[in-house]
Amino acid sequence: MNPLSLVTLLQFAAVLHLGLLWAGASMPKAVNLRAALVPLPPFIRRLFYVYLGFIALILAGFGLLTFLYAAPMAAGEPVARALCILMAVFWSIRLLVAAVVFDMRPYLRTLFHRIGYFALNSVFVYLVVLYAYVAWRGGHA
Q1: Quick check: helix, strand or coil at residue 136?
Q2: What gap in Å lies between CA 37 and CA 107, rounded to an integer?
């Protein structure tokens, strides 16, 4: 693949991370998270919100690093390849968790939510395939 097109695909992946941030920010309202957390002790509630914050930080970091370092990633520089491996593993595990751990059926009541869930998982697949490909090819066309 042409390194320039690979840079473009990586920059698109960076933008998708911003979309995932937006989707993550809308999730608490979609699942009525505040009400679901009320019966929990304050520490557990705070812990859950801290986890959400760390996930947002990771998404922002993955997006920013991908955008800023798309060219070194496409060129197969060693640290950039390692970052691609990390992100491919991260998104692979996220896909596995979506398939095995989460039962989303109660939350997919509307066509809008079903389309959104399909789009979300499509983004995860794109990220896995792209980062795995970039890591595997190692700068070789």
Answers
A1: helix
A2: 16
Cα dist from 48 to 22, 34, 36, 102, 115, whole Å: 18, 11, 11, 16, 26
- Three-state DSSP class for residue 60: helix
> pLDDT at residue 50 above 90?
yes
Residue 137 tokens, joined: 């090819």
Q: CA-CA distance, 20 to 1, in Å (whole number)?
A: 26
Structure tokens at 90: 């991260």
CB atoms within 10 A of CB 78: 10
For residues 66 and 13, the answer to whether their CB atoms sit within 8 Å is yes
Rounded to the nearest 10 degrees, the angle between the axes of helix 111-137 and helix 3-30 is: 150
Residues 6+ apart with CB under 8 A from 8: none
How much is the pTM? 0.89
